[in-house]
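**Backbone description:**
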Amino acid sequence: MKKFGLLALGIIAGIVALASLGSLIGLAISALVVFAGVHFYLKSDSTFLKIFWATVGIIGLFSAVANVPGFFGILAIVVVLYVVKKWNKQSFCFTKSIVKSDDPFVNFEKQWNELSK
C-alpha cells in the first residue's frame, strides 16, 4: 500500500510539474532579469544608470511575482525527487552527501589532516 501511495503522489506531482513548465521558464527568465538588474546596478557609477538598473530589477521582481505557479512547479519537482528517493530506498536530504571511498590515498589524506590538527 505504501508503494501505491508513493506512485500516486509521484504521478500527481509529475503532472503538476509538467503543467507549470511555462511558469517555471517565466520564473527563470524573471530571475535572470533580477540578477542582471542587481549586478549592473552595483557596477554602475552614474545616477541615471543606477535608476535604470533598479527599474529593471523591480520589473523582474514583478514578473517573478506574476509567475507564482512556477513556485508550485519547483515544489512539485522536489516532491518527485522525494518519491524517487523513497522508491529506491535512499535517504533524502539537502545536505552534501559523504562518499566513503576505499581509495588508500583518500583515507591517508583524511588521517593526515586529523593528525595535523
